[in-house]
Amino acid sequence: MKCPYCGHLDSKVVDSRPAEDGTSIRRRRECLECHKRFTTFEIMESLPVMVVKKDGSRQSFDRSKVLGGMLRACEKRPVSFSTLEKIAEEIEQTLQNEMDREVPSAKIGEMVMDRLKGVDEVAYVRFASVYRQFKDISTFMSELNKLLKEK
Ligand SMILES: [Zn+2]
Fold first, then answer.
1. For the whole prediction, is pTM greater than 0.90?
2. 50 and 39 in contact (C-beta within 8 Å)?
3. Any residues with CB less than 8 A from the CB of 124 and at least 6 apart, and which?
4. Which of 4, 13, 120, 136 has the fewest CB atoms nearer than 10 Å to its CB?
């Protein structure tokens, strides 16, 4: 950051806090040369998280898709929209915080299932049945049995 007073290129950050809009950071900097202070607004970098699907194709992470999948699974279940929104948000946050910018879609599915399990069992089983594409009744039953055993 170039000092607006003397043009020196080095400064140190003395304070930083998120700006009101949440997408930029306000920083107080002190010039290492003339020691005057100035404020900068820096845009927080949010690189998209890429989801790698089973066939190898990539798509940027879409929270609304995760939410949509959960909403379908929770149809007519006593689960509030805000609960699902929170889960989707939490998943996005978790992915954003990881260094890896590429996530296999399977991992996201597992993350959703993990959380749905604690919210509503019927929704969990529905989601899992779509997601894991149970080939037949016996794989479906074994999943149900696993769920029962965990209780
Ligand atoms: Zn300066």
1. no
2. no
3. 73, 113, 116, 117, 147
4. 136
Contacts of 12 (CB under 8 A, 6+ apart): 29, 30, 32
CA of 8 to the centre of ligand 1 (A): 5
Distance from the alpha carbon of residue 20 to the mean position of ligand 1, in angstroms: 27
**Span 18-36, pLDDT tens digits:** 777 667 778 899 999 999 9
What is the 26 CA–ligand 1 centroid distance (Å)?
A: 19
Q: For residue 49, name the pLDDT band (cuts at 50, 70, 90).
A: confident
Return d(Cα 143, Cα 146) in angstroms, integer. Answer: 5
Amino acid at 13: V
The CA 15 to ligand 1 mean position distance, Å, reads 17
Question: CB 151: neighbour CB atoms within 10 A?
Answer: 5
Sheet harboring 50-52: ordered strands across? 58-60, 50-52, 102-104
d(CA 73, CA 64) in angstroms, rounded, equals 14
Q: For residue 27, how far is its CA from the centre of ligand 1 (angstroms)?
A: 16
Type of residue at 77:
R
